[in-house]
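Hi again,

Forgot to attach this to my earlier email, sorry! This is the prediction with zinc ion bound. I've pasted everything inline since the attachment limit keeps bouncing my files.
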Amino acid sequence: MVNVVPYPEARPFWEGVAQGELRLQRCQDCGRAVFYPRALCPYCHGDRLGWFVASGSGTVYSYTTVHRGFGEFAGQAPYSLAVIDLDEGPRMLSRIVGDVTVSIDARVQVEIARFGDHNSMALPYFRVLRA
Amino acid sequence: MSTSRRAAIVGVAESDTGATPHLSVMSQQAKAAKAALDEAGLRMSDVDALLTAGSWAWGPSVSLAEYLGIRPDYLDSTNIGGSSFEAHVGHAAAAIEAGLIDVALITYGSTQRSDPFNNGLVEAADVMSRQFEEPYGVPLPIAAYALAANRYFHQYGVTSAQMAEVAVSARQWAGLNPNAYNREPITVDDVLASPMICEPLRKLDCCLVTDGGGAVVIAAEDRWTDVATHPITVLGHGEAITHSSIANMPDFTVTGAAQSGPKAMMMAGVQHADFDVVEVYDSFTITVLLTLESLGFCKPGEAGDFVARGRIAPGGEFPLNTNGGGLSYTHPGMYGIFLLIEATRQLRHDFADPLRQVAGAELALVHGTGGMLSSASTVILGRS
Ligand SMILES: [Zn+2]
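Structure tokens for the complex follow:
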């Protein structure tokens, strides 16, 4: 069972996931989108960060297919993990779901879903779009 | 560093490595420390600085000082992963230069193979990792290195077979090291036939899981006349951090070695062609390729060719990881201290076997990599 206890500055992110949205922060000073959620912008160190709903679209920067999972994930292998360059700028690690094989530079779209047993919380996964 | 008070490694030792169910994480370090001090002809009471890293205590240097029965007045438990011990050399050298200390003891110990639940190697993930990595089932650290390897392959067309040469050469060096955990020769085909763990990394691309401990004693130049060994001078050092979690690595093909390496080499006043022997952290085969490129020994994308044709194997033109490395000698969770031990012995010309000993070695580069390719620390050591 996957469960996440949000840290305070990440609560809007997880509230968004619960509502089917991928929310990111945007720095009011330099305008850059920020992930993961923080109290200071990591680019200009401004402290005025607001929230917006991201497109959920991105491009795969790299991926790996896990053949030996650990712990509760052992039975799920093989599965693919990817690091995704979101269209808004930030990079995010997630799991690839769906039938289309992942590759570097593949376009992906967020899919907020439950994975594993029914007690697991919803997470932002990504589906590979057909070229 | 020529005008300042110099520091040198005057003693090195391992405790037992491999599987050591008779040792604790503390006795690992105590035994290695005693052996390293004995070799130098120094006593525990000479130690005025203690540096160690681990997750087996809230303050490892505090716990170990008590266990050893010493009261050093300079303590450092800095833990930046497997590169911690190269960083400790830099910290000790700076403290010696500043006149704060005379004799520093750096130690490491781990019982991760025999007692995985009580060696404290694996710390709780940080809050960021718990929220944005763990829920997806990310086997760390291997998944991070696999993600870097796939990106590197994609960008430069380097292949698994080229990368496997790192493991094959390491095993050849291990064959010359009686203390190495795995010594029987392997081929590129063996590496490629080993089970896939996390694409593109296979079992033989991964470091060992062993127990082990080590110690390094560093002394200020005013003490060199007291010591029984040939002092190996710390000529330069550099540290860098590029990220913590893999998704936040700016470029998956460039490590912090691109910063720490030039910094250390500039301090030492040396060039790439000057090195006789190089010891770099080989947590995975990919780590070696990325490190060689980031240090500037070859251009981006050329490391596959650089390690080919036995160039890094015994008798090759670029002696690398001459004890068999973390891939074949030992890897007790954090390996950095063993790089320093091996480089020191090479520069002292300790080995009788002419294949094991790099002939006339005068200058060595030691490079640690920690975390998820996160931290980097370079040390330049010289015989004279
Ligand atoms: Zn900003």
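The mean pLDDT of chain B is 95. The pocket of zinc ion is lined by residues A 27, 29-30, 32, 41, 43-44, 46 (CB under 6 Å).

That should be everything now.

G.
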